Amino acid sequence: MSTYAKNQPSGFKNTIERVAIVGAGGTVGAHITAALLKTGKHTVTALSREDSGNKLPEGVLVATVDYDDEATIVAALKDQQFFIITVAPTAPRDTHSKLVQAAAKAGVPYVMPNGYGGDIDNIKLGEETMLGPVGKANRDEIEKLGMQWITVCCGFWYDYSLGGGESRFGFDFDKRSLTIYDDGNTKNSTSTLSQVGRAVAKVLSLNELPADENDKSLTLSSFLNKGVYLKSFVLSQNDMFESVKRVTGTTDADWTVTHEDSKKRYEDGLAQVKSGNMAGFAKLLYSRAFFPGDSSDFSAKTQNELLGLPNESLDESTKVGIDMVKVLQQRFERMAS
Ligand SMILES: NC(=O)c1ccc[n+]([C@@H]2O[C@H](COP(=O)([O-])OP(=O)(O)OC[C@H]3O[C@@H](n4cnc5c(N)ncnc54)[C@H](OP(=O)(O)O)[C@@H]3O)[C@@H](O)[C@H]2O)c1
Is domain 157-191+233-297+315-336 given the CATH code 3.90.25.10 in the classification? Predict the structure, then answer.
């Protein structure tokens, strides 16, 4: 496709109106869908399994798909301009590839692949957390099939990771216990689920292409085959603990705090995963991201201002995370991996 709107065939609208999404009722997909609908600029079609137990947000069109029948996915994606994949990490391994192949057959030009994690350019971190090569393979497949991608680099979801149990940010709210990696001062880039939703909606609400060579405004095309980088907070576990105490009205005396060496915890998690126990995965992932001097802090690359993302209240986000504890505890399969 030519780089400028002025060279497009007549009838070209230079906006992304038709968006398809997998996971509209899922953890991050629900936030992305809500933010897209709120703009009033997009028609959102949710690709959903017939036996899905997920509640889809009001206002989306629903296309029922069967992952064992490609034609159903291709039909759902026909005429879509942008395809967002937020598929469960616990779904069968070939699910992402099935979606991407169907998107290519349907002629969708742009895909947002699964990812929604750290900096894709931090190769070492990606390899050591095992997520990097998977994300790279997903993006490569999109390119190989002639499409372009935009991936979201948001760091850990703050609210989800805070409420998601001891293996994540170390908090067990039922036991009022906290595992702190090392001295607890290493900082990580984090984003709330709602900030991720807003960022995606901002990018998809930009003009698709510059009008002509004089148009220097921000366009969706400037993000193609790149990450969009965002944050809500750059936090250490000690920062989180201070917020948790404020929000819960507790003091140090109410909490049992233990310290663990992040490198040892990473090795323990890795050994568990290698022996087939996926409970080690969250442990290795989060402890690795808090390695002192080599953490997942990419705040220097974040594009919040460029995208006009709002500043958020840490304590309000902490409350959202604590409110998620019970919901996440119901997701046995997911929380054990
Ligand atoms: N940065 C972070 O802290 C963080 C944390 C967790 C996950 N992530 C990443 O975010 C992405 C999406 O994760 P998520 O938690 O939003 O996903 P999720 O809520 O667990 O699942 C999203 C959707 O996947 C669909 N799905 C398709 N096949 C499925 C299957 N066999 N089993 C279960 N669901 C299936 C479901 O849609 P239907 O039911 O409508 O078919 C579901 O709503 C992944 O790339 C993951 O790695 C990032």
Answer: yes
